[in-house]
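User: structure tokens for this one?
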Amino acid sequence: MGSTAVGTSDRHRAGGNGLVAGLVAVAIALAGAATAFATAGAPAPPPPPPASAGAPALPAGAGAPALARAVPTRLRIPALGVDAGLLPLALGPDGSLRPPPPERGDSAGWYAAGTSPGERGTAVVAGHVDTPAGPAVFFLLSRLAPGASVTVDRAGGGSAVFTVDRVVNYPKSGVPDEVYAPASRPELRLITCGGSFDRSRGGYQDNTVVYAHLTGG
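Assistant:
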């Protein structure tokens, strides 16, 4: 898959109003990279529940005021039993986002050149669904339901609390721009691989995307 390189002038920072235009390709490349670590015998991640597949089940709402930029240190999703470290992710020479290494499958990563979770805009967190060792940090991500809470601990103390609006599976060939579109409020996207696993076609065929917005901090 092709990727779009991102220069420093394209970065979204606090007070900005959008992610880089090429981040769609970048994040899809990240999700695709996770498939390289999947094993033929690994269990398939569960599909999203039917209620999560379409329009948001909860009103979007205004949410909480934006927070200042801060490095995220930990991701907690009580409904899934996730309590994981957060690694900074950067772009490789080919312009694609480098995923956490397979030996860190129990950790997620955030796009450190973009919006930090809690800032105004769209923050992106990605993680593996599985690795050669078995299920990884986002193995159950597709089962997250609207209304669930996602907490991101922040360096210096405090946290950003998000409420899930919806969970959607998109074919990797058809991820819409809205996943990474500019946001006027603090929003969060959690991304991993999903759908069926087809080794002959390069691995998992979908991306699972969680949409959430800031409701506390």
